[in-house]
Amino acid sequence: MMRSSCLKVLAVGALLLGLVSCGGSSGGEAGFPRSKTLYLAGSQWGDPNTFNPLVENWQAAWPVNDRFNLMYEPLITYNSLNGKFEPLLGTLVSSDPDKVVVDINPAAKWSDGQPVTSADVKFVFEIGRRFRNAATAFAIDFTKEILAEKLENGGERLTFVVNKESRNNPLVILDHLQAIRIVPAHVFEKLLSDNGNDLSAVQKLKIDKDPVVTGPYNLENYTNERIVLKRRADYWGNDVLYGGKEPAPEFIIHPIYKNNDHFAIALQQGKLDASQTFMPRIWLKKKDGVKTWYDDAPYFVPGTMPLLVINTTKAPLNDKNFRRAMAAAINYNDIKELAVSNYASDLEPGLIMNQGLEKKFFSAEDAAEFGVKHDPELAKKILADAGYKSVLKADGTLDHMLDKNGNRLPTLSIMVPAGWSDWEAMVKLAEKSLRAAGIDVREGPVDAGIYWSSHGPGNFDIVMRKLAENVTPSLPWGRFEAVMSTRNWLPVGGDNWMSENQGRYNQPGTPEYRPEVDSLLKAIPTISDEAQLAAAYRELNKIFMQDQPVIPLCYLPEQFYQFSAKQWKNWPTSDNPYAPPLLPWVGASTKILWNLQLAK
Amino acid sequence: MKILKNLLKSPMFIIGAGLFFGTLLIALIGPIVYNMTMDRVGAQYAAPGGGYLLGLDDLGRDYVSLLLSGLRSSLYVGFLAGIIATTIGTLIGIYGGFRGGLVDDLLNMMTNLFVVIPQLVILILISASLQEGRSLTLIGVIIGLTGWTWSARAVRAQASALKSKDHISLAKLNGDNTLRVLLVHILPYIFSYVFMVFIIQVASGILSESAISMIGLGPLDTVSLGTILNQAKNTGALGDGVWWAFMPATATITVIVFALYLLNTSMDGVFNPRLRK
Amino acid sequence: MLKQYPTLRFILMRGGWYFITFLVAVTINFYLPRLGKHNPVDIIMGKSGSGMSTEDARIKEEMYLQEFGLVKVSGSGATREIVRDSEGKPVRTTGFEQFVTYIGMCLKGDLGTSFQKYPKKVVDVIKEAVPWTLALQIPTIICGWIVGNVLGAMAAYRRGIFDKVFFPFALGLSAFPFFVFGMLLVYFFAVGFHWFPAMGGYANNVIPSFSFEFFSSAAHHYVLPFFSIFLILAGGQAIGMRSMGIYELGTDYIKYAKWLGLKESKVLAYLFRNAMLPQITGLALSLGVMIGGALITEMIFSYPGLGMAMLTAIQNNDYPMIQGVTLIITTSVLIANFTVDVLIGFLDPRVKAGLQIGKGN
Predict the structure, then answer these.
(1) What is the DSSP string of A489-550?
(2) Which of B211, A27, A99 is nearest to C228 (CA)?
(3) DSSP letter assigned to residue A109
(4) What residues in A contact C198, CB-CB < 8 Å?
(5) Burial (CB count within 10 angstroms: exposed 0-12, middle 13-18, buried 19+), residue A492
(6) CATH number, position B208
(7) Nearest neighbour of A425 by CB, restricted to B58, B217, B220
(8) Could you give the CA distance from residue A47 to residue A242 in angstroms, rounded to a whole number?
(9) Nearest 10 degrees: CA dihedral of B77, B82, B85, B91?
(10) Nearest to A53 by CA among A106, A120, A112
(11) What is the pLDDT of residue A19?
(12) Residue A538 class from Cβ within 10 Å (0-12 exposed, 13-18 middle, 19+ buried)?
């Protein structure tokens, strides 16, 4: 009896699985034919929760979050390859220390047929005046007001008046113009009045049913496994910007994978056309058609630098000699080679890259004079000169450190989000070389929750961060601002949330305070003379190298731009650099969509 | 003695014990015999050979050293979790099974509570509140504290079956207190059973550690077999055909757990007369 | 009063205990995450980007505190105001006040809004994910359980060559870490041979609906995750059943039954029924670890389900989401256990006997 029922179960099971496999292999082109679909991945990792453009960046789903311009578009885009501004909803006319002028493209239209007007621009740029907690409320600190005038061609000219009283920073206005996407004022004003003028009620709406957009694509449908966009036949820009052409793919699908490996597998199998995820050892994947900007190392264009933010209020990290010793102890070459698969050129001292658009501000002379490179002996010498002592164990490994008064120093922890494998590898390698030089640090991986809640109040010794991730018009100023500005200086702890300089460098009112840091940070955005600007950057970078408030670890690309030409060809590369090395969904790279061709 | 003699007659026991004590021996004397190093010694994922028997990991470290250290961690976690889980499980199971009634119901409720509160919640919460984060010991303790429910139920069933045995009733009539009855009259009868439960708990402790590490919640203070596998997964070793990143660690886990299962089964056979014929 | 209906009394008693367990579990699951010192709003602030002035950060932080019911509020609609103390700082709600609100909402079927998946409702997250978790786990666990037990029972009873080959194989299978097994399945059958897809619950080009395309695609994606759990589970169950079978073969009642000269088939029927009992308990318990186990499967196959939602919720102190997921786990595990308890009450002669005599208390 037992045996026959067992056989029955097995037989039924086998039959079912057989059916399943047959059924599966015949399934196919039902919804979105491969030849009409572009698969892009790496932006959306969790469930898509909302497509509301008024919520915080991290809350909205792709492509409403971040700077993506497939659905909602900014006024202009920034080409991170040549530093030029390209027109989109508007055209940049001029920019000077007092104002930035942009003409609205007279052809620009919402998907409901309404023209894009100054009212739309004002809605999102000035929302902070009505709702101080709006996601784009920060814009009013930079733009005092937006003056609109009608032009003869029917369009409008917008003058963004620099808010001199507040931030006095036309550079960041340029950042905003290419990052803040314009939303339809007529739609959201109505929603606001329907909801008793309560912004948080409107923020709860998902805006996922036929949203009113200006972009070339609109939301078709979405599940927790993927987001589908469909090409808009009546996109205003096809005629004006692309000579009557349509974007090649009818659909864009963003699959949501939970495992880093899956992006590489999908790309190798031709199920994905491009991905911005970190894939180690890309040269091994070449044979399966995975391509990058350069065919050989460093494969990518550097754009950002992950760094160790140091809590400068805590002994011994409050001593710049100690921080410089740390910078000299770290083996940057190991980090480059092992943690990031050689995807970058060698790191230079300082906070300015010797690469790309920033190169003109980089001074090799200063780097040699004021900066430190990997040199364990130098690290030990700096420590010894400053009176620090490393106490070793019997087996020659580090036990603890003593300060100049002979007091034992605590072990310092480098906070890193547990499970971010490439970051953890960088920190592990840094830890190893720091300890080898006699500096008592330990890797401190923490869960995401602790990581995100610790850096604002400064609850850390050393924390790994990637600041100024996007290549924007304000670089490298934006990077200096993020690590050195004392504009919002608050002491460590409690509810004291600081969104820049979280290491509390350069505390005002103390004897070590260097006011020139803040005055340079204030001055640079309004300097228009190139030579003057270079001098100011040189000075700022010199101070950075002397004080070493943070320690950059390597150069990384703005985006890991990896693509496969199996389905779609004519992607930009170093040989055909018609767009910056970014996936066709952001900045000046969206034009790739109009240039792609079917491979077969 | 007789039991041991019988055990030694079982080939299953010999193989199981051989494998288990073999790995134990490797874990103990490996680090003395082998020149262990946790430093970078070569290129990322350098293939086996060239002086390094099992190749190098993503940070250029020697896999033999990593595996030796991982093996020690995994055995430590397994035994720690096994001891905690078996102790709690046995005490609760034996007491509840023997006493019955309200006490049994309350203990049963407690057992159910530990089934329904996810291990991950406890693990993440406790590690978040500790300065040093998730240590290997903490993980062992938490696996032990959350993994005993199964042994409590198993032991309870045994104890409750013994309850109505004559000699127990006699002891009760003699006025022996509960503790004495439990320790003198019940525990010896189910001791072999408890020991087998312990072996299974050690095995599942080792598997649990590797599963927890796989999710990315593994020990932060040391290398374990689970963290080696997690590292291999996170750095895309599988996709690039780097088999030495995960096969040796997998084999090590499988061998220890397999050996423990063999031991358990062979003891089962010896304590169970029918098997001997 | 119910003395004359021992079975009903037994069921009610058990049910009562499970209900109390449920209440205690819900309370613990509510308070546990709140014991941590990390404020969920700080996590949100950390993600909300840079460029905020101190004043803006404070305003934003208060908005979230209010939104998530972590501070006291007076008024309603657009006139809501945060209640402040003498220093102007918002007055936080106590854990107990939040608990009362939570229970009130639960009774109305509202599990609140997720902090991390804002503005998504916890109920919606669960509704989307649970069918996938159940569809993967229930058939896998049940098939693995049945196949494993049948094979184990056969091995116990028949012994000989079947046992000698089958047993070490099953033992080896159950000793193998199941996530590596899953990874190897992907490597060989998806990357190597292209027989099955490597990831996802269905192809990206189909729309989830009641269509043939969707179901065949989902079935095709089902195969590898299914086998990754099924084989190892069946191996483990087989070993358990084999030992239990052998164990029961050696017990007094079997010897007694044999001595009495009962028919072999009758003895065997007793044997399997009793050997089965711990295995049924095991089945109920394995439902408890289902969601945790699903998490690893979800990671390895990018499969939809509740595991990932639970992990990120715990890591980010997303209270409503943790409460929602643990509520689902608690309810399903307790129901499964209750069912098994009742079932065993009917199946196990020992428990049955206890019932009929009455426990005297």
Answers:
(1) ---SSTT---SS-TT--S-TTSTT--HHHHHHHHHGGG---HHHHHHHHHHHHHHHHHH-SE
(2) B211
(3) B
(4) 262, 265-266, 269
(5) middle
(6) 1.10.3720.10
(7) B58
(8) 34
(9) -150
(10) A120
(11) 44
(12) middle
Return the number of other C-beta atoms located less than 10 Å from residue B5's C-beta.
9
A105 compared with A395, residue with greater pLDDT: A105
pLDDT tens for B123-173 read 887 877 776 778 899 999 999 998 898 888 888 877 777 776 767 777 777
pLDDT band per the 50, 70, 90 thresholds, residue A14:
very low
> Which residues, other chains included, contact A315 with Cβ-Cβ below 8 Å and sequence gap of 6+?
A403, A409
pLDDT of residue C298: 86
Residue C43 near chain B (CB below 8 Å) = no
- Asked if residue C75 lies in contact with residue C66, where contact means CB atoms within 8 angstroms, the answer is no
Cross-chain Cβ contact A30/C205 below 8 Å? yes
In a domain, A522, yes or no: yes
Query: Contact A51/A35 with Cβ under 8 angstroms?
Result: no
- Has residue B60 been placed in a domain? yes
Lowest mean pLDDT among B83-92, B241-250, C255-264: C255-264
List the 368-407 stretch of A: residues with Cβ below 8 A of B.
Answer: none
Spell out the residues 6+ positions from residue C38 whose beta carbon is closer than 8 angstroms to its own.
A449, A450, A453, B128, C317
Tokens of C224: 């590898």
Binary contact (A453, C120; C-beta < 8 A):
no
Q: What is the pLDDT of residues A341-380, one digit of tens each?
A: 999 889 999 999 998 899 999 999 999 999 999 999 999 9
Residue among A456, A25, A322, B1 nearest C196 (CA): A25
Amino acid at B249: A
pLDDT digit string (tens) for C202-257?
888 888 888 888 888 888 999 999 998 898 888 888 888 887 777 777 677 777 77
List of chain B residues whose C-beta atoms are within 8 Å of the C-beta of residue A277: none
B59/A428 Cβ within 8 A = yes
Residue ranges of E strands in A270-425: 274-275, 290-291, 302-304, 306-310, 389-392, 398-402, 408-409, 412-417
Give the Cα separation of B54 and B63 in Å (integer).
Answer: 6
Amino acid at A250: E
Residue A210 resides in a domain? no
Question: What is the C-alpha separation between A148 and A155, in angstroms, rounded?
Answer: 10
Task: Say if A163 falls within a structural domain.
Answer: yes
How far apart are alpha carbons C354 and C361 in whole angstroms? 12
- When CB atoms are compared, the residue of C40, C125, C222 closest to A20 is C222
Closest CA relative to residue A242, chosen from A110, A74, A87: A87
Structurally, chain B folds into a number of domains equal to: 1
CB-CB neighbors (< 8 A) of B236 in chain A: 260-261, 264, 279-281
Contacts of A443 in chain B (CB under 8 A): 220
**Is residue B41 in some structural domain?**
no
pLDDT tens figures, C326-337: 888 888 888 888
User: What is residue B185's DSSP assignment?
Assistant: I
Domains for chain C: give ranges and CATH numbers: 38-111 (no CATH), 122-360 (1.10.3720.10)
pLDDT in the model for residue A125: 96
User: Which domain covers residue A574, as residue numbers?
Assistant: 5-70+215-293+561-598
Of A280, A432, A445, the CB nearest to B236: A280
Tell me, yes or no, whether A298 lies in a domain.
Answer: no
Distance between B261 CA and the closest CA of chain A, angstroms: 25
In whole angstroms, what is the distance from residue A462 CA to residue A442 CA? 10
Q: Domain of A274: which CATH number?
A: 3.40.190.10
Q: Which of A45-49, A430-434, A455-459, C138-142 has the highest mean pLDDT?
A: A430-434
What is chain A's length? 600
Structurally, chain A folds into a number of domains equal to 3
With an 8 Å Cβ cutoff, are C46 and A225 in contact?
A: no
Find, in chain C, the residue whose alpha carbon is nearest to that of B271: C247
